[in-house]
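Known limitations

Files may contain more than one protein. Parsers should not assume a single record per file. Below, a two-record file is shown to illustrate correct handling: read the sequence, read the C-alpha cell line, then continue until end of file.
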Amino acid sequence: MSVKDPSISSYILTISVGGRPDYSGDVTGSVQGELLKLALQETTLAELRVKPDTIAGEPFPGLPLNLRRSR
C-alpha cells in the first residue's frame, strides 16, 4: 500500500501506545494530497505531512514525529 496510490484514500490500522490506552486502538487515516489525517474513534490524532522520503507532524500534543526512509 502506498500513500501515493490515487486509488487508495482511506486506511484503518491498529496502534498500541504503552501507558496510554486513550491513544490506542483502531485508527482511521485518510490522505488528501500530501496530508495524512489520523483519528481514533474518540479523538483526532494528527495531520502528518507525507513527502517521498519523510513523514512529519505531531500525532500527540507535544510529541513531534519525524520519520525518514532509510535506503
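...continuing to the second record:
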Amino acid sequence: MSNNPQTVFLTPRPGLLVLNPDTGKPLAPDGEHLVKTVYWRRRIREGAVSESKPAAAPAAPVPQPQEF
C-alpha cells in the first residue's frame, strides 16, 4: 500500500463555481492538479467536477534570426 497521495486534474462543470477547501478560492475554470481527497471524490460523484487531462501548452515560438 502506497502512502503517496493520488493527484488528478479536475475541471469544474461549466457554469459552476466550485470552491477549493484548502485555499478558499474557486477552482480555475481551466482546471487544476489536486490531491484526490474525500472532498474531491464527492464533487466528482455529484458531477460538480470531472477528471480530465490538462490542455496542451502551446508550443514555444521559434526565434527568428534578426537581420542587421
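Parsers that stop after the first record will miss the second one. For reference, the second record is described as follows. The helical segments are 38-46.
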